[in-house]
Design a protein that fits this description.
The complex is a heterotrimer of chains A (about 100), B (about 100) and C (about 220). Chain A is mainly α and about 100 residues long. Chain A contains five helices and no strands. Chain B has a single domain (about 10-95), classed as SH3 type barrels, CATH 2.30.30. Classes of the chains: A mainly alpha (about 100), B mainly beta (about 100), C alpha/beta (about 220).
Chain lengths: ~100, ~100, ~220
């Protein structure tokens, strides 16, 4: 390749193995992530370009390691924090609350 | 915003810069020359939209057709294969 | 959590998608999603009902919409022209809602096979094809199809006739793409419904070709 990749997401021409064409159902929590993006975007809180920027700046290691909707979740959280739509204190508190609710 | 600079059939070369901001010109087309296939429309610039900006001034967006051989050299499978990519006008210069 | 990646769950290998079975407990990311979702709902950004409807709309979209468009284009040359001129308008004409999508339909010919990809992320014509398959979003397809489309198509079991050129469409920006495959031999007498039944998702991504003998599938 002539130019340096923009980031870990810039994959055209990169080395890669065979295609894994197995079908995978989208889990409900993944649909919730997708819906979150749609709803935030429709309401003007988050742009697809911002979602992409948040994914592209995860770092190469995280980009490779995380699943597709994990990347979305990470990116959306970053952008929502930037914008003050959610606060850094509220998230761990809510995570703890949710884990405590688990059977 | 000015009128679109390029008409279908124009030969254009993609800039080689690598800004730190979000941008949508993949590395594999940078520095390469192709042919404008069509003007897709005028759209907000993702380079500011991605960073909380308003995308202004909007940019003409083109589809540019590249010969696979131009992009990949000996890695291309065959002469005659092509790749088409959407590119915003500020990434393009008239080919010299 | 400010973009931290030091979460403790047990990813020991790269994988492009979540395992199908999500009954195995709450991962850190599932907990994060649940937390952010509840905060947004509590903050009145959207409601649980809004979410339910969004997922319902998502689930309702499928390749059947694109297949109807392809089948109509095969039997109606005037519709084909309209489809190639403005894919979104042609979709709406058949009652297919496409939201804000700018849809470019690219037609296969005897000389050229079209294939779509998004090398930078996973742009996909989801209004006409539903959610993309996992492989479309994964590294191997995005990295390779722009360089060696024939090798990639061969992995999908698709062999192109000698002399046919391949045109790969990388949707890097604001447009979305769908392939209008060529109508296969042996389907002259078929009605639209029978034709639509052989137009699979992969045919409209461009990695497969519709076949008359696939009717039963």
């Amino acid at each position: 390749m002539s130019a340096e990749p923009i980031g870990p997401h810039d994959l055209g021409g990169a080395p890669a193995g065979p295609i894994d064409a197995h079908e995978h159902a989208v889990a409900h929590w993944e649909k919730q992530v997708d819906a979150m993006m749609t709803l935030l975007s429709e309401r003007g809180h988050l742009k697809v370009d911002e979602l992409r920027r948040g994914i592209e700046t995860l770092g190469a290691d995280a980009y490779e390691r995380l699943s597709y909707y994990e990347r979305w979740a990470q990116s959306m959280t970053t952008i929502l924090l930037e914008k003050g739509i959610v606060t850094p204190e509220a998230i761990p508190a809510k995570v703890a609350e949710i884990k405590a609710r688990q059977p | 915003m000015s009128e679109p600079r390029f008409a279908p059939g124009a030969q254009v070369t993609v800039a080689t810069r690598r800004p730190a901001c979000h941008h949508r010109a993949p590395a594999y087309i940078k520095g390469h020359t192709g042919t404008v296939e069509r003007l897709c429309g005028i759209f907000g610039n993702p380079e500011t939209l991605a960073h909380g900006g308003d995308g202004r001034p909007p940019q003409p967006l083109y589809r540019v057709r590249f010969a696979a051989r131009e992009l990949w050299g000996p890695r291309a499978e065959r002469d005659g294969d092509t790749v088409e990519v959407e590119i915003y006008e500020h990434w393009l210069e008239a080919a010299s | 959590m400010s973009g931290g990646h030091e979460h403790g769950h047990d990813h020991d290998h790269p994988h492009p998608f979540q395992p199908d079975d999500d009954a195995g407990g709450l991962t850190e990311h599932m907990a994060l999603v649940a937390a952010v979702r509840e905060l947004l709902i509590e903050g009145g950004i959207y409601s649980a009902e809004d979410e339910r409807r969004a997922i319902e709309r998502m689930d309702a979209r499928s390749p059947a919409a694109g297949a109807r468009m392809v089948a109509r284009a095969w039997v109606d040359p005037a519709y084909r022209e309209r489809l190639l001129a403005d894919g979104a308008a042609a979709a709406r004409e058949l009652g297919v809602e496409v939201g804000p999508t700018r849809l470019i339909v690219v037609a296969d010919t005897a000389e050229t096979k079209n294939v779509i990809v998004c090398t930078l992320c996973s742009c996909y014509p989801r209004w006409v094809l539903g959610l993309p398959p996992a492989w479309y979003k994964a590294r191997a397809y995005r990295a390779r199809v722009v360089v060696e489309p024939r090798a990639v198509l061969a992995e999908f079991g698709t062999q192109l006739p000698d002399g046919m050129a391949v045109r790969v469409h990388d949707s890097t920006a604001d447009m979305r793409y769908m392939v209008l495959p060529a109508r296969p031999e042996g389907t002259q007498d078929w009605d639209e419904e029978a034709l639509a039944a052989i137009v699979s998702r992969d045919c409209m991504i461009g990695v497969a070709l519709p076949r008359a003998d696939a009717k039963a599938a």
